[in-house]
Design brief:
Blueprint: H1 7-22, H2 26-29, E1 36-41, H3 47-55, E2 60-66, H4 70-82, E3 88-90, H5 93-98, E4 104-107, H6 111-123, E5 127-130, H7 138-150, E6 155-157, H8 165-175, E7 182-190, H9 211-215, H10 247-258, E8 266-272, E9 285-290, E10 297-302, E11 326-332, E12 335-339, E13 344-349, E14 354-359, H11 364-374, H12 384-402, E15 405-407, H13 409-415, H14 422-435, E16 445-447, E17 451-454, E18 459-460, H15 464-468
Parallel strand pairs: 1-2, 1-4, 2-3, 4-5, 5-6, 7-10
Antiparallel strand pairs: 7-11, 8-9, 8-16, 8-17, 9-10, 11-12, 12-13, 13-14, 15-16, 17-18
Helix pairs in contact: 6-7, 7-12, 8-10, 10-12
Length: 484
């Protein structure tokens, strides 16, 4: 199915809108007391929270909704109209971006659309709230940052932990040296992920859904899984696995504690999609090592339960590490800090005794709206640059994995011997898989390629295959521009 609305017509419309707004600041174009008009793009899942979150903000109005599924779109538009809201519905994101009566684009589409929507919206002088990860690959994430800066837009990333004053205070406390030097920042994503099933051939596209628009920048491949929605996370063409789904939140917090403002100079990953055979190709079990100079960042993904018996009740029998499950553990000379959720942190001494606790978080949507009104990037808790860096750490870990080879446990462990802190995590991961009935000599782990990167250029050193995976071949007309 082809959309009749071409990119050329979008760019013409966008250019008109940009020209109309470029002569004046946001506050001059619209009064300080005028309602801020938001368009939510993609709301079958997380986007529903965007609608609710913005609807609660004083002086903010959800003025437009956009979704490629006519049933989803029509139902939500009618729901808002029934509640007394004046809202327009759009199928094509290019049309809502070009709309003159929209100030903000808020998007919770699948990952492969995030960066392009952000760039296009910035070019049309819209501010943006973009869900995590902000990109599907490293290159386009940097383009989103460049677009935000060039057009002086306010762009917030959906990593809401950044609006937790508790975690912010814990970060400052650790960086002040209260537990001594940081030895390791560890992210954990132990979250149940069952098989998505195995189909025999191409599946029908849901009725009323524009599949061309859904695919957008990604290849318009036949649907080779049972469910189009959500399970796109587990296919590399459109998703980034749980590392780039749930894991981006914990990756961001782990990097926040380290204070790193660039990508890691060294990365390696090991893992696999193990315990079942289905139509996904992203790992459900994974370790990623980022070799920052100050201290390493180690990330662990586990999608299987604690053991095979736990598969009777997925989600209630997940592994834990140092009392963390979907969490961050910051190991220091004098103890450790556990961040167990999005709004708290606990410090422990070397004996495991609790010594300090922080609680509380503020509204991430409100923080964004406040920054939209102030026009100060510094007011954002999760600026697009922060989102890009944390998203890219997920992407580079996946690149190492995608270039890897399957190996027996002994050979895999030997291959990882030069990466400190990895082997202990590898042994725990191997034990976890064995408890789930996985024979690692038959279902072998994939050991990724150890990669070195120039953090300034965000390019790998001496590995052309890895550099190819920093971007993708975009499907016209859904192309992230080289010059934003």
């Amino acid at each position: 199915m082809k959309s009749s609305y071409t990119r050329r017509s979008f760019l013409k419309t966008s250019a008109v809108a940009t020209a109309a707004l470029s002569a004046a600041s946001w506050n001059r174009v619209r009064g300080a007391n005028d309602a801020v008009r938001v368009a939510v793009v993609g709301f079958k899942g997380r986007g529903g929270e965007h609608i609710n979150g913005f609807s609660k903000q004083p002086g903010v109005r959800v003025a437009a909704l956009c979704d490629i599924d006519s049933k989803v779109l029509g139902g939500q538009v009618q729901k808002l109209k029934d509640a007394g809201n004046d809202v327009k519905g759009y199928k094509d994101v290019r049309e809502v971006i070009a709309a003159r009566d929209v100030d903000i684009i808020s998007t919770a589409t699948p990952n492969h659309w995030h960066a392009l929507i952000t760039v296009w919206a910035c070019q049309a002088n819209k501010d943006v709230y973009v869900e995590k990860p902000v990109s599907h690959n490293v290159w386009e994430g940097r383009k989103a940052v460049e677009a935000a800066r060039k057009y002086k837009r306010i762009v917030q990333t959906g990593t809401q932990s950044r609006s937790s004053q508790a975690i912010k205070e814990a970060v400052a406390w650790v960086r002040a040296g209260n537990l001594g030097k940081i030895l390791l920042s560890r992210g954990l994503c132990y979250k149940p992920r069952q098989s998505i099933g195995k189909v025999d051939g191409p599946q029908p596209i849901p009725e009323g859904l524009d599949y061309d628009l859904w695919c957008g920048p990604a290849p318009m491949s036949p649907l080779m899984r049972k469910n189009l929605h959500y399970d796109w996370h587990w296919v590399f063409e459109t998703g980034n696995g749980d590392l780039g789904n749930q894991g981006i939140h914990q990756m961001d917090i782990a990097r926040w504690f380290l204070g790193e403002k660039e990508l890691s100079p060294v990365v390696v990953s090991v893992g696999g999609r193990l315990g079942y055979v289905d139509d996904g190709n992203t790992p459900n079990t994974q370790i990623v090592y980022h070799g920052f100079e100050k201290a390493p960042l180690l990330f662990e993904v586990r999608g299987l339960p604690k053991d095979k018996a736990g598969q009777a009740e997925w989600g209630k029998n997940m592994d834990r590490f140092m009392d963390g499950q979907i969490s961050v553990v910051v190991h220091c000379e004098g103890g450790h800090v556990l961040v167990p959720n999005y709004s708290s942190a606990i410090a422990f001494d070397r004996t495991g005794e609790e010594i300090k606790r922080w609680e509380g978080a503020k509204d991430h949507f409100q923080n964004f709206i406040d920054a939209v009104r102030s026009r100060q990037i510094e007011d954002l808790n999760a600026d697009i640059l922060e989102g890009h860096l944390s998203s890219a750490l997920c992407h580079t870990g996946n690149i190492s994995y995608q270039l890897g080879k399957r190996m027996e446990p002994g050979a895999a462990r030997e291959q990882l011997k030069d990466f400190g802190k990895v082997q202990q995590a590898f042994d725990r991961m191997s034990d976890h898989l064995r408890r789930n009935g996985v024979n690692l000599k038959e279902e072998q782990l994939t050991v990724g390629v150890g990669l070195r990167m120039d953090p300034t250029s965000e390019r790998f050193l001496g590995n052309a295959d890895a550099n190819k995976l920093l971007t993708r071949d975009y499907r016209k007309p859904y192309v992230v521009p080289e010059n934003v």
